[in-house]
Structures are given as structure tokens and as C-alpha cells.
Input
Amino acid sequence: MAEIALQIRIAAEPETVYRAVSTPEGVAGWFTTGAEIGEGVGALHRLSFPGAPMAWEFRIDEVAAGKRLSQTVVAGPPQWIDTEIVYALEADSEGGTVVRFDHTGFAEVDDMFREVTMGWAGMFTRLKEYVETGTPAPYFTL
Output
């Protein structure tokens, strides 16, 4: 199995970063403006992207406000189905938050996997910018 593992430091409290990955306004501020975000275990994050024929759905598997959000992809590109996405947030001893992100369960390292890896890296620069400035900078806009 192929796995993406990224880490970024953000100059904001873990609760602020958590809201950016777990609320409609937050996700629309850095990821996609086509965000319908459910709350609690079992709910869905339904994300739409320009040119995509369908919404992608991430089922929430675990929630620990300000600390962790774990999801499984249940609708989207076939290579993404049943992959797992985890945001683990930890207060940085020097202030701010360390975000550890894992997207696991890809069948192989192929061209799509390499593009997804680069895509996530780009999105996390948007997440950092949005959380630190409060100015929306979504990667995808509808």
C-alpha cells in the first residue's frame, strides 16, 4: 500500500486549525468552495471540484475536537475509495500547531498517486495561509 505523509507548522491554536478542516466555512477557506461538511462520526464531508462529474465523499470515522479528524473516502475516483485521511493536530512547544497529515491505503505508487501527493502539498500551503491570515484562499473554487 502507498501512503502520503505530510507535516506542516501553522501559527495558530489547534482548535483554530481544527475548525479549518472540520467546518463548512473552514474547508471552503482553503480546500474547495464546494464543501458540505457534516458533523460527528458517520457524517460525510461532501466535496465538489471544478470539472469533476460527481462529489467526493469522506465519511467521518473519528473526531477529537482540536486534536484529530479521521475519515474514509466512500465516493470519488476509484483509486481513492476506501483510502483513509487523518489530520492529527498537536500544540507546538514553540507556539502554534503541528499538523500531521496521512492519506493511506492507495494500491500503488502510480502517476495518480504522485499527482495527489503534490496536490495535498499545495493544499496545505493554502491551509496555512488561510488559518494564519483569516483570508480565504481555496485551492478549488466553483
Q: What stands out?
A: Strands lie at 2-10, 34-37, 44-48, 56-64, 68-75, 84-91, 97-106. The chain has one domain: 2-133. The mean pLDDT is 97. Residues 2-133 form a domain with the Alpha-D-Glucose-1,6-Bisphosphate; Chain A, domain 4 fold (CATH 3.30.530.20).
